[in-house]
Amino acid sequence: MTKHSLLWKITPPGGSPDSYLFGTMHVRDLRAFGWLETAKSHLAECEIFATEFDFSDTDESALAAALQLPDGATLDTLLKPGVWKNLDLYCRKKLGVPAETMRHQHPMAVTMALSTAFLADESAHSLDETLWHHARALDKTTTGVETFADQLDTLRKIPFEQHLKSLTWLLKNYGRQKRRLKKMMRWYAQGDIRQLYQAAKKDAKGMRRILLYERNALMTKRFEEIARRHSLFCAVGAGHLAGGKGMLRLLKKAGFKVKPVEVVMRH
Questions:
Q1: CB atoms inside a 10 Å sphere around CB 13
Q2: Contact of 261 with 5, CB cutoff 8 Å
Q3: Which tens digit of pLDDT belongs to each residue from 201-258?
Q4: Which contiguous run of DSSP H or E holds residue 84?
Q5: Where do the domains of the chain lie?
Q6: Element (H, E) at 144
Q7: Nearest to 42, CA basis, from 21, 13, 65, 15
Q8: For residues 10 and 227, is the Cβ–Cβ distance under 8 A?
């Protein structure tokens, strides 16, 4: 099941209606938008649209609470002096602000801000949000295959030390990460879900069970519940599709037919 495609037609055990599973990316870089028109045309045929969580369920205050630093701690005291110096350099260079403005930020928020800075900011919304807005404009029912609470729960399960480690690694390997993201964008454009799964696995390191496998099982279960009764277009991070414990394999095991859809390139 290593066929290159980001979009898969999923047929329930009893036959129609067909549903779709689409591997997406939470980026605003137009290199990731090559599959957008193909995705939109199949989304239009479905009754229900699901992202990982429904964007209208975002609870900003709960998120802020989950991203609180430990009591009294600040990033400049948590990071080693050399690493903090690197943070200041990249914050000024990439975000146009001194590291000082990040002192009270959670390491994950800083890691995401710096990683996103590698990519172009060419679209008003990220790819998954663009599809969500499109589904709303078509009056589709929108939902999530996780809840926002599920996502916060996953975030809480990651030890704080792990977040600090990731940020430290990024600040020591900034050029390397930039090259890595370039590669991932290339794999994404090619629909190479196998490579994207390997990259997600590598990123998750000791947290694979929490970040990938448990979430894959939960999202597949919710996908099944909806797709047995309705036509569903579901957009989740592309790293969740492939692999022995990936959503495609789990859907197959549950008796669904799984078939790649070709991308329609615009000329």
A1: 10
A2: yes
A3: 988 888 899 999 999 999 999 999 999 999 999 999 999 999 999 999 999 999 999 9
A4: helix 81-90
A5: 7-68+124-160+188-260
A6: strand 141-144
A7: 21
A8: yes
